[in-house]
Amino acid sequence: MTTQAFTPQSLFSERILGVPTSFIREILKVTVQPDIISFAGGLPNPEFFPVEAIQQASDTVLTKDGKTALQYSTTEGYLPLREYISARYKSHQGLDIAPDEILITGGSQQAIDLVGKVFLNKGDVVAIEKPGYLGSIQSLSMYQPNFQGVNLTSEGVDVEELEALYDRTNPKMFCAIPNFQNPTGLSYTERTRERVAEALVGRNTIVIEDDPYGELRFAGTRSKSLKHYFGAQCVLFGSFSKIAAPGLRLGWVVAPKPMMEKFVIAKQASDLHTNFFAQRVMYQYLLDNDIDAHIKRISEAYGKQRDAMVQAIEEFFPAEARSTKPEGGMFVWITMPENFSALKFFDVAIKQKVAFVPGTPFFVDGSGANTMRLNYSGASPETIREGIARLGKLMEEFMPQVA
Amino acid sequence: MTTQAFTPQSLFSERILGVPTSFIREILKVTVQPDIISFAGGLPNPEFFPVEAIQQASDTVLTKDGKTALQYSTTEGYLPLREYISARYKSHQGLDIAPDEILITGGSQQAIDLVGKVFLNKGDVVAIEKPGYLGSIQSLSMYQPNFQGVNLTSEGVDVEELEALYDRTNPKMFCAIPNFQNPTGLSYTERTRERVAEALVGRNTIVIEDDPYGELRFAGTRSKSLKHYFGAQCVLFGSFSKIAAPGLRLGWVVAPKPMMEKFVIAKQASDLHTNFFAQRVMYQYLLDNDIDAHIKRISEAYGKQRDAMVQAIEEFFPAEARSTKPEGGMFVWITMPENFSALKFFDVAIKQKVAFVPGTPFFVDGSGANTMRLNYSGASPETIREGIARLGKLMEEFMPQVA
After folding, report:
1. What average pLDDT does range A156-161 have in this prediction?
2. Which one, out of A162, A180, A197, B330, has a CA that is 20 to 30 A from the CA of B55?
3. Average pLDDT along chain B
């Protein structure tokens, strides 16, 4: 018998060794100190969590049907909840999505992981917005794809660039957040959506439409879902995290039936099914409360926070700083002159007790050194103004050093 | 521009195409009809779900700290819950496990998936009990390992066979359920555990100890955890599903620090973190209630159900049928003569309104055609007796046809 010594690091999978330490995790550790004004987070404002209504819903579910609510359940998710989501797509967006085209997941993040499980072989080309959502990049990284970034413009993804990428590499999927994207706050115009459809419909590819923020609109009008244009070619994600509460970890995947069968297998392999108690509580909450009114309250508040941030940026940031002006969601994106290092500026800012997320981790090609993500949903308009003023002052001092 | 037509089946990953349709899912669909006596399930008895205590815990958490409980939280899980688990390992099993060696997961099933993510490259050899837990087989299948089954004896895994397999193929991991295994109900004797350790400690491999049933003992005495023998070479899973309620989807992984870092990355990529509300409710429940007394009540009831099943098997099954006599857990395993087809017998039995799970899916090499899994936690002693009597009568009629 030969024995090889136990060396755990030699046992790790290729996929897990390929993941860099999460820069944002490290940043968030620094920014939790209470005296810091943090624009680094990505959390919904807990002031709007419907705590009492959830408490009521939880009581109702456990009183009426506790034993079932606490038992194992189906992989697909609670049917009445899926019916509710289906009906809401119809009434709010005119989309025909059957309940059996919906699978309840542990938040949208799990939906991304399931997409990786169902579709990705090592080396498959994945087209993703540049900058793109870091959670998608991290989650799909586990499946070792070949990421190809496509630039975002103020009107949404750069369609020429997307089409050229498809002609060149035929990606297996295109990952898009067309409404109030994380990290930029940008949305695709209706015309961009049409053009993306003209470019990709009928190709042998799928479009992943991640839509956690779409309902958080405080300005402008809603555009059509990519699902409207792509039909069975689209896998659509939704989430209760931003419109109700993220701690319950409830999201969903919409996929056409032949794909749904595979998603169910992947979901079962991942965790059997999503927390059933949470599904039941959410459904009861939706039955007993006016979620539209609730979403309106959140959106209005976020609109005020966004106004405070955009106004303060105009007032306090140097003229060279370009900023997005989102019509919804939770983020503003700042682009500084080419030679600006957001990473170095982070060190300067944190010493003055203001935090943000440097943009590079959002770029699959490692670019974006001069960009920053600012979150406004987590601070009051007054605090936002104070924090932006502080950042602006620091920028003025910082910029000549790098120019 | 060339366009290839949209053919979704061509886009699926190799891993998902490699998963056969879940036989057990299909069986469970048949067996949910209310007039069927089903031994096919694997569900804990809902009569013992602490519904009122969970309701009280849920109220307390939302009243005291609702906004935090409904917010995003850390990937590792709620620290006080991890401290509780750590302290319980110490007090109940004498194991020294630090809270930061514990990660809260969406049930043990997710723990298995994380093991696949963290360790498995395609083609890696995975040693697993034969028969083995189907959930592990399905979940790890996603990572396309080379499964090698090792037979179980009445004393636990066949150590000679395990050692020979290691000498031959050097598996990356050995997946074991040493206490009241699913599907067999068998446990490893203390001597078997020692011998497994003698065979594998110091080799470059890890031992996955899945222990969802270990606390559900109604006879005999507890053996030492494999963790005791393997230390940092062991990844240990635990779960609240069988001792509290499975609908909350709460389990955990114990892993030494260098591995835990990778588990955290994999967990974050999978779903950011486990339902935080459920973690808070479970912790509150554990604080306010005597879980040991609760586990004792469950175990005593399962003991009576097991007695009813084992006695009825002795009384009604043909002499050729061999049965395990578990000291805990939820399952009895039946081995019939070589030429018996449990699959064909299933069709006979279901017509007479009794269901069980044919054993083949639990064997990674496709053997086990003459075996069956019977669950006793889901039916009363009277119903168990009636169902076993019915099965026994059918076996007598069925067996000559195949002899």
Report:
1. 98
2. B330
3. 95
pLDDT tens-digit series, residues B185-198:
999 999 999 999 99
Residues 355-374 of chain A with CB under 8 A from chain B are none
Phi, psi values for residue A121, rounded to 5°:
-95, 155
As a whole number of angstroms, the distance between CA A346 and CA A374 comes to 12
Q: Does A268 contact B62 at a Cβ distance shorter than 8 Å? A: no
| Spatial contact of B243 and A268, defined as CB atoms under 8 Å apart | no
Q: How far is CA A375 from CA A8, A192, A305, in A?
A: 39, 25, 10
Instruction: Specify the CATH number for A52-288; select among 3.40.640.10, 1.10.10.10, 3.40.50.10490, 1.10.1270.20.
Output: 3.40.640.10
* Dist CA B112 CA B235 (whole Å): 10
Tell me what the pLDDT averaged over chain A comes to: 95
Contact B275 A106 (CB under 8 A): yes
What ipTM is given for this predicted complex? 0.95
Whether the link from the prior residue into B131 is cis, omega within 30° of 0, is yes
Nearest Cβ partner for A46 among B54, B71, B278: B71
Q: Given an 8 Å threshold on Cβ–Cβ distance, is A51 in contact with B58?
A: no
Residue from A83, A3, A31 nearest A350 by CA: A31
Tokens of A18: 């390929």
Report the CATH fold assignment for A19-49+293-402. Answer: Aspartate Aminotransferase, domain 1 (3.90.1150)
> Residue A322 is inside which H or E element, if any?
strand A322-323
Q: What CATH number was assigned to the domain covering residues B13-42+293-402? A: 3.90.1150.10
- Which uninterrupted H or E stretch holds B231? none
pTM score over 0.90: yes
pLDDT score of A2: 47
How buried is A1 (Cβ within 10 angstroms: 0-12 exposed, 13-18 middle, 19+ buried)?
Answer: exposed
What are the extents of the domains in chain B?
Answer: 13-42+293-402, 52-288
Tell me the C-alpha distance between B180 and B329, whole Å.
Answer: 5
Q: Please check whether residue B252 is in contact with residue B210, taking contact to mean a CB–CB distance below 8 angstroms.
A: no
B118 membership: H or E segment, kind and range: helix B107-119
- Interface contact A23, partner B, CB < 8 A: no
Nearest-CA distance from A292 to chain B in Å? Answer: 19
Q: Are B253 and B103 in contact (CB under 8 A)?
A: yes
Closest of B98, B116, B125, B268 to residue B203, by C-alpha: B125
Phi, psi of B131 (to 5 degrees): -70, 155
pLDDT at site B27: 74
Residue B366: left if φ>0, alpha if ψ -120 to 50, beta else—which one?
left
Q: Omega of the bond prior to A400 within 30 degrees of 0, cis?
A: no
What does the pLDDT read at residue B211? 98
Residue ranges of chain B with pLDDT lower than 70? 1-3, 20-22, 400-403
Q: Which helix (H) or strand (E) holds A349?
A: helix A342-351
Asked if B59 and A55 come within 8 Å (Cβ–Cβ), the reply is yes
Is the Cβ–Cβ distance between A309 and A332 less than 8 Å?
Answer: yes
Spell out the residues 6+ positions from residue A62 whose beta carbon is closer than 8 angstroms to its own: A69, B51, B52, B54, B55, B58
Residue-wise pLDDT tens digits, B148-168: 999 999 999 999 999 999 999
Pairing of strands A173-176, A357-358: unpaired
> Is the omega angle on the peptide bond into residue A46 within 30 degrees of 0, that is, cis?
no
CB pair distance less than 8 Å for B1 and A265: no
Half-sphere exposure of B244 (CA within 13 A, CB side): 25
Task: Write down the pLDDT at residue A26.
Answer: 73
Chain B residue numbers touching A143 (CB-CB < 8 A): 13
Structure token pair of residue A144:
């070792």
Percent of chain B with pLDDT over 70: 97
Asked if A144 has any chain B CB less than 8 Å from its own CB, the reply is: no
Residue B335 near residue B321 (C-beta atoms within 8 A): yes
